[in-house]
Design goal:
Layout lengths: L8 E4 L17 H5 L2 E4 L3 E7 L2 E6 L6 E5 L3 E5 L6 E13 L5 E3 L8 H16 L1 E12 L7 E2 L1 H8 L9 E5 L2 E2 L8 E4 L4 E4 L13 H17 L26 H8 L2
Parallel strand pairs: 1-4, 7-9, 7-11, 10-12, 11-14
Antiparallel strand pairs: 2-5, 3-4, 5-6, 7-8, 13-14
The structure holds zinc ion (ZN).
Length: 263
């Protein structure tokens, strides 16, 4: 967002849990921060230079305009949003091979869940003030030979019912999955509040290191979109932004932040 070479980190502290939106990782070195000025609109009460952090105290939720001045003015896209929390469970599939032996369908295990959650809460917490709390993470076993690629019908009939009741959302790791062309690497079922992510993620549309967690974030994006009763699937054509029909990343723009968590 900022192309001037500044490194600035910003946070919001407030009793109302307000938070900056999609600029929480914008960057500026501390010496430059101390020599910079921040000018905020009326809904932000005051700005404090605190070591290498700029603390912005929010008066109310809003989409303020924040500008940082040094040699040139920099406008920051900022959202001050109420915190939202959802619970999530993870299920890892085992099923039978052709000889009737129980095998793991996915390379992922419950031991991977802490980093899943860390990444998800960084993506959604830092950018939209939406956080996910783990209910539990377990292996499940379907006593059938389901084959190497889970069909959509099998997922809905034999696997989705094994979701964690009471969790807002359940994520299934099943290895490979025959997703629709529009999804390719996962699917969210709004009527069940479950989603599935393939082990490999979607390398063609995300940077390599984000291919798997990117698809997980994409499907959670559908969940958040659905929770707001927004029309349509949530896909858009803003390239480089999560839920784009083209190239995606873990970045959310102002429109997506607003869709997920504005008032
Ligand atoms: Zn999608």
């Amino acid at each position: 967002m900022i192309a001037t070479g500044y490194r600035l980190r910003m946070c919001v502290s407030s009793k109302s849990n307000a938070s900056l939106g999609n600029t929480s990782t914008v960057a500026m070195e501390s010496k430059k921060v101390r020599s910079a000025m921040i000018n905020c609109c009326a809904c932000v009460q005051r700005c404090i230079a605190l070591r290498d952090w700029m603390a912005v105290r929010a008066a109310s939720r809003s989409l303020p305009k924040v500008s940082v001045f040094r040699n040139t003015a920099i406008k920051l896209e900022v959202a001050i949003l109420q915190r939202k929390d959802f619970t999530i469970a993870f299920r890892f599939l085992k099923h039978l091979d052709q000889s009737g032996k129980v095998i793991n369908a996915t390379k992922w295990t419950p031991d991977d869940v802490p980093w899943f959650l860390t990444r998800l809460n960084w993506v959604f917490g830092a950018q939209t003030n939406i956080f996910f709390t783990l209910v539990d993470a377990k292996w499940i076993t379907v006593q059938k030979a389901l084959g190497p690629k889970i069909s959509r019908d099998v997922f809905r009939k034999d696997i989705a019912p094994l979701k964690r009741r009471g969790a807002d959302l359940t994520c299934f790791l099943v290895g490979d999955y025959a997703a629709m062309d529009t999804e390719a690497a996962g699917e969210y079922l709004p009527d069940e509040q479950v989603f599935v992510v393939v082990d490999q993620g979607n390398p063609p549309v995300f940077d390599l290191g984000e291919a798997f967690i990117g698809v997980m974030a994409h499907e959670i994006g559908h969940f958040l979109h659905h929770k707001r009763n927004m029309p349509g699937s949530g896909h858009h054509n803003r390239s480089g932004i999560l839920l784009s029909s083209g190239m995606e990343s873990l970045s959310l723009d102002k429109q997506l932040v607003t869709n997920f968590n504005a008032w």
